[in-house]
């Protein structure tokens, strides 16, 4: 079984080692407990102090105060074609990190296309760009792990031709039909007939709307980086996360988790001190050699 190794690195002074490790632990649990059984992709997530500490074979996920460009993409490819992601810091940066991790695991090449019926009534079969976290990317559709907010993601059934009873279309169940987007989300596809890229987006409007992005004539990186740069995905998630009700709930849960963790740590410390200061008989034996 091939395992993807991800390295979480902070390049902002706003994140200390404890925070970095806690988010890495939450992402590891999401990758192994939630994502792997559905997508059959296995990954490890480890925190490192700097990029110089990241061993060969890891894909880096780098948290920065500012990724410099309003339309900058999250996932890029390095000079050897390996993915790396840039995560813009915000109070809810665990949500952005989760989003980028899921997209890297769902499509490391950031250019995978899947055929399906277009949401646009005047189009036929089109090629959807696989972006597992985008249709339900709004923080309201996320969930918490260890008290930290993480992103929802769709399942392979998202591209099914028709809806069916009992089928799971996203991990949280927020998406209840194939190729459906939720408020704050979007999907992107290529129309082979016109050779144009299209999107269905639901940004601050009563209902989803369609966008014709035109023909993609040149790109420096992956398809996803070209699309995300037009949609300003990273900056939008970073800005919307701290304003959501679910983030406020996550903050409360984080405090509760810290209280429970501190109490358990105190009990461990007491037990360790007891073991070090008192004689311990691990077992009584008779006969034998």
Short synopsis of the structure:
With 289 residues, the protein is of the alpha/beta class. It has helices at 17-39, 93-106, 223-231, 233-240, 245-277, and strands at 3-10, 42-48, 58-64, 75-77, 83-88, 113-117, 125-129, 143-145, 148-150, 186-191, 196-201, 209-214.
Topology of this protein?
Layout: E1 3-10, H1 17-39, E2 42-48, E3 58-64, E4 75-77, E5 83-88, H2 93-106, E6 113-117, E7 125-129, E8 143-145, E9 148-150, E10 186-191, E11 196-201, E12 209-214, H3 223-231, H4 233-240, H5 245-277
Parallel strand pairs: 1-2, 1-3, 3-5
Antiparallel strand pairs: 4-5, 6-7, 7-10, 8-9, 10-11, 11-12
Helix pairs in contact: 1-2
């Amino acid at each position: 079984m091939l395992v993807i190794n991800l390295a979480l690195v902070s390049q902002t002074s706003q994140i200390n080692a404890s925070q970095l490790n806690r988010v890495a632990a939450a992402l590891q649990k999401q990758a192994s407990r939630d994502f792997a059984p559905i997508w059959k992709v296995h990954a490890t997530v480890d925190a490192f102090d700097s990029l110089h500490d990241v061993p060969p074979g890891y894909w880096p996920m780098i948290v920065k105060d500012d990724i410099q460009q309003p339309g900058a993409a999250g996932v890029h490819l390095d000079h050897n074609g390996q993915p790396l992601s840039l995560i813009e810091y915000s109070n809810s940066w665990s949500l952005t990190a989760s989003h980028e991790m899921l997209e890297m695991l769902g499509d490391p090449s950031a250019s995978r296309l899947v055929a399906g019926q277009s949401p646009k009534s005047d189009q036929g079969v089109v090629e959807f760009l696989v972006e597992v976290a985008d249709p339900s990317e709004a923080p309201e559709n996320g969930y918490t792990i260890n008290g930290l907010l993480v992103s929802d993601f769709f399942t392979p059934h998202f591209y099914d031709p028709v809806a069916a009873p009992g089928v799971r279309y996203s991990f949280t169940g927020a998406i209840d039909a194939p190729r459906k987007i939720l408020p704050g989300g979007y999907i992107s596809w290529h129309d082979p007939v016109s050779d144009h890229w299209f999107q269905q987006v639901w940004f601050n409007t009563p209902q989803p709307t369609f966008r014709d992005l035109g023909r993609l004539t040149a790109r420096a990186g992956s398809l996803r980086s070209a699309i995300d740069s037009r949609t300003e995905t990273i900056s939008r998630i970073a800005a919307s996360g701290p304003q959501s009700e679910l983030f406020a709930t996550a903050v409360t849960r984080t405090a509760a988790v810290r209280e429970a963790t501190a109490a358990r740590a105190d009990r461990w410390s007491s037990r360790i001190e007891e073991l070090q200061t008192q004689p311990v008989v691990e077992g009584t034996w008779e006969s034998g050699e």
